[in-house]
Amino acid sequence: MRRTWERVRSEPGLKRNLAVLAGLIVLAAVVGGWILGNQRFTPPWENRLIVNATFEGTPGISPGNGQEVRIAGVPVGEVRSADVDDNGNAVVEMAIEREHAVYEDATVVLRPKSPLNEMYILLDPGTPGAKRLSDGDTLPVTASERPVQIDEVLGYLDDNTRHALAALVVESDAALASAPARLPAGLEKTTALLRDMKPVSESLSKRRDALSELVTALGQISQAVGEDDVRLAKLASALDRTLGTVGKRNEELDSTLSQLPGLAGQLKQSTQAVQKLSGQLNPTLDAVRSAAADLPGALSKLSGTADRLGSTMDVLGPLAENARPVVDDLRPFTADATRTVRSVKRFSPLIDPVTSTLVKHTRDVGAFVLNTRSLTTLADANGGITRAQLTFGVNGLPIKDHSSEEGR
User: Fold this and answer.
1) Which one of 2, 150, 186, 266 is at 20 to 30 Å from 281 when CA atoms are compared?
2) Are 144 and 52 within one domain?
3) pLDDT per residue as tens digits for the range 137-152
4) How many folded domains does the chain comprise?
5) Residue 88: which region, alpha, beta or left (left: phi > 0; alpha: psi -120 to 50)?
6) What is the DSSP string of 232-246?
7) How many CB atoms lie within 10 A of CB 126?
8) How would you list the strands of the sheet with 119-124, edge to edge?
9) What pTM value is reported for the model?
10) Could you tell me if 53 and 97 lie in one domain?
């Protein structure tokens, strides 16, 4: 170094050339650093969290162009690369600052940053209760969303709808061409409309305040429930025991559920029978209703009858008292009367043929009785007559013998 420095000092013009070269090197370093800084240069010593996110599709993603990864709208990283996995989904590599933790329940959404469809990734880092992601971990496709592109919407339209949409755009252009002449009147009407809508907005504001109070109250309730760990633990243990008991009785529950269709059928039949019965009960209820209308008059008449019956019972009371000794005296004859009736019962079948024979000769028997009403007189209803007396027995009557038939 000493010999080199002596040479630089001794050789004419060499010192000046070295100074110019050093200045150019410094200038190149400054310009190169500025350019690399604006080109989002990633130094090798940078320490960032590398996390992958899986999307069904990533329209508008261009790795290396500084597309941002944002949390709550604040840039915290950038998109490094994009690839396709074995299932045909897009896998995007994100480099995130280390101070921002990302958890297993994180979600990612593709958002357009400009009308030119330039995208950025909106990252919800998840909750601290979940597992924290490390370098190289990948979020599943279920944790991602992508925006719907305008060409996808137009792809579902048929030709007529597309022509109608084009005509609408053309007519809108023509309408906007005359906007300076017609727009002020429309704006005035809009002002009147907004003035009329003021009560509605006030009502909506009051409703928003009420909803805010409701949300606050619900938050306080949830906070109170979260602080009561003992009751929550008891509730969880009771729920566990209940589910365990239900699991042990799974077969019985299955058998009970298998009987439900038959029970439903029987219940349906019973319901139909009840409907038929109700249809039959309606005329009965109408008759009962009409009878109920006649019932007060009948009850009033019955009360009069009851009054008269009471007076009759008052009269019959002494008679019953006087008849009691007579009944006591007649009791000894009851047994004799019973035996007599039993004796007469044997001859009662013989009386029927005699009665049937006498019925045929009722007129002759009447005349006979009239003529023989006295055994001592010689006159009858027609005057004096020589009388004769004829005596006959039962065996002489033309009566069919029923005793032999009964014996047989």
Assistant:
1) 266
2) yes
3) 999 988 888 777 776 6
4) 5
5) left
6) HHHHHHHHHHHHHHH
7) 19
8) 138-139, 48-55, 90-97, 74-84, 68-71, 119-124, 107-112, 144-145
9) 0.35
10) yes
